[in-house]
Amino acid sequence: MGAMDAVAGRVAGGATVEFRPSGSSMVPLIRSRQQVVVAPVDPSRLEVGDIVLARVAGTVYLHLVSAVDPAGARVRISNNRGHVNGWTGHDRVFGICVRVDGVPRTGAAAKVLG
After folding, report:
1. Whole-model pTM above 0.90?
2. Whether 75 contacts 88, CB under 8 Å
3. Contact call for residues 96 and 52 (beta carbons, < 8 A)
4. What is the mean pLDDT of residues 69-98?
5. SS3 17
6. CB proximity list for 110: less than 8 A, separation 6 or greater
7. How confident is the model at residue 1 (pLDDT cuts 50, 70, 90)?
8. Cis status of the peptide bond prior to 28, with omega within 30 of 0
């Protein structure tokens, strides 16, 4: 199990988690090793542009919602460089990024469960 799988498990269990993901696929929204806070989410409230922690085709990503399909209860996940990871069901969307380096993500707090 990788680090992102462990974070996903904690968030799926109801925890709000702070961590520092690595990689450049979300620049400039999230730079490598910036502190992010991810909280459990109500997937039915997601919108294009939200940053979510989700499993797509077996891999956990902290990526953008690039399309929503309310009737199919799914969202399309993409990085911030134009690569589409694919569609995933609401049951595989674990959390929403609510802060990056202490700066709140607009609208994210209203989508947190609880």
Report:
1. yes
2. yes
3. yes
4. 97
5. strand
6. 45
7. low
8. yes
Strands (E), 47-105: 51-56, 59-69, 74-78, 84-89, 93-100, 103-104
55 closest CA partner among 7, 16, 14: 7
Angle, CA 85 vertex, CA 55 and CA 19 arms, to 5° = 50
pLDDT band at residue 2 under the 50/70/90 scheme: confident
β partners of residue 89: 74
pLDDT in the model for residue 114? 78
Distance from C-alpha of 23 to C-alpha of 97, rounded to nearest angstrom: 16
CB 83 within 8 A of CB 33: no
